[in-house]
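It is worth pausing here to work through a concrete case rather than discussing structure prediction in the abstract. The textbook approach is simple: state the sequence, then state the predicted structure, then interpret. We follow exactly that order.
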Amino acid sequence: MCELFGVTSQNKVKLNELLSEFFSHGIDHPNGWGMAFFYGNAVSLEKQPEASHKSVYLKQRLQFKVEADNMIAHIRLATRGNINYENTHPFVMRDNSNRTWTLAHNGTIFDCALLNPFVHSQQGQTDSERILVYIVSRINRELEKKKDLSEQERFNLIDEIFCEITPENKMNILLFDGELMYVHTNYKNSLYRCYKGATVIISTRPLDCHTWENVPMNTLIAYQAGKQVYKGTNHKNEFFETEEKMRLLFLDFANL
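Step two, the predicted structure:
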């Protein structure tokens, strides 16, 4: 459906070769591409609602050195929402403490009443953006009780949210809050990680000849500067491919 790419590192690392391989998969995911780079609490967002392997801008961009210590990239195969800029990942929002949250999602929300009230609060139509709007709303609710949230408090809240949303839904997600890189999958063999010194690369599929391993299933993990710092609840809400195929077929039939 979509593919994810993420980096968390102690130092800036050159990413041209990995990104070139990643974005070459736009042949199979032709409905948009995006990259988010982080500078403190600021986000530099580059994205287009077109196939990554056909993008003139992206081709030129990757001819120059691309370095980052934290970044998120995405290529889209649309299942919900039109093919336009507003529906192209990653999505970015600020909470009431001015913290920036950036999210990219590979998956589909089939059933989650918690997200339904936020349909009219988002800019686009994707269920993925709706996840971020819900997360930020929950963060803001906690901020009403206190001025700021610690790293541990933020992680605990995101862990709670993922435990609530994952039943019946496919939730492969990269989320960055300016300090922590949150990584989650509940779909077998669909998200991998590769350790390169003080750098962790996350990808929907292995991108080079290095050793890649599956990201642990059904458990939220958070990294900081290339080091795993938090591990959440094993919620056991695994998503299965047969469920996804049947539900997408049902949605297609319902829209006829």
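Step three, interpretation. The longest strand covers residues 2-14. The radius of gyration is 17 Å.
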